[in-house]
Amino acid sequence: GVAFSPVGSWLASGSGDATVKVWDSATGELVRTLQAHPDKVLAVAFSPDGTALASGSSDRTVRLWDVAGGGLTRSLAGHSDKVLSLVFSPDGTALASGSWDGTVKLWNVKSGSVRRTLEGQSHGVMTAVFSPGGTALASGSDDGTVRLWGTRTGKLLRSFEGHSQGVTSVALSPDGSLLASSSYDNTVKLWEAASGKLLRSIEGHADWVMSTAFSPDGTALATGSWDGSVKLWGAATGVLRCTLEGHGAMVFSAAFSPDGTRLASGSGDRTVTLWDVATGTLLRALSGHSSEVTS
To answer: What gap in Å lies between CA 215 and CA 46, rounded to an integer?
Structure first.
């Protein structure tokens, strides 16, 4: 989804207009536009050190960019269908890409080679996220399941089943104890990561829930929905804290700033919106994309 740089000064957004835009998150000014792919950009992610930006596209490739200069450093080809999700490992040496081809590929960032391909989900992989230590990776699929994999062995560690439709997004709490999954079934489910036990099902959105994210301190959960709203929930309780309204179309993605004070959301209304987490107020709407902000 929309991604903050590790120190929070920059914000990246990918769009159906085939570009990635990098914004100054404090001023809202456009820093750079990358003519990223020949087709829709569906995923963006910053490396942990903030020097690299990855983009994934309907063109089936992943591209790595130099953040400072904006130059293309590497193009990764290997998926047989569109790339829907990207996430760097905590140490920055690996990049995971989830694809509609039903696999997750783990890439060596330095060499561009495929370390491992995780296979087993029967439909497209919509989302992937590393555990805080990088030893496990959770993937969510259009088949309605979440799977937890060992990154060193590639073995399936655990399967989380309970959604009645496809899983659109997965997030792990900062301490790795909780896993949140959003779905086309309009719910968000909270799971105990270690056991796979379903702790809570959160309902409140009137349409597909496309994105979920934990706050950096792990106390809040943000969700973005096709109903056009972003909601903030208590992560421990599942109680609704506030609803952020201001987008004119569906919300595809949501991300907290590293300090947890702001939330960014990308929408079908072609904007990226910045929100104040404490008050729920709209801080700024960033306009410039000529198509939906999918990531």
So the answer is: 17
- How many residues are recorded in the chain? 295
> What tokens does 274 get?
């910045």
Please give the single-letter amino acid code of residue 224. G
Give the C-alpha distances (Å, rounded to integers) separating 160 from 25, 121, 138, 285: 35, 12, 10, 36
Q: Which residues of the chain have pLDDT under 50?
A: none
Q: How far apart are CA 148 and CA 120, in angstroms?
A: 11
The C-alpha atoms of residue 123 and residue 112 are separated, in whole angstroms, by: 25
Contact of 87 with 105, CB cutoff 8 Å:
no
List C-alpha distances in Å: 155 to 45, 137, 159, 204, 265.
25, 10, 12, 35, 34
pLDDT, position 286: 86
Type and span of the H or E element at 85: strand 83-88
Whether 4 contacts 25, CB under 8 Å: yes
Burial class (CB in 10 A: 0-12, 13-18, 19+), 46: buried
* Residue 291 main-chain phi, psi, to 5 deg: -150, 180
Structure tokens at 258: 């590293």
Q: How far apart are CA 169 and CA 158, in angstroms?
A: 17
Q: What's the order of all strands across the beta sheet hosting 61-66? A: 41-46, 52-57, 61-66, 72-77
Backbone angles phi, psi at 20, to 5 degrees: -115, 130
Q: Which two tokens stand for residue 267?
A: 């929408």
Structure tokens at 129: 């996220």
Number of alpha helices (DSSP H) and beta strands (DSSP E) in the chain: 0, 28
pTM for this one? Answer: 0.94
Are 56 and 84 within 8 A, CB to CB?
A: yes
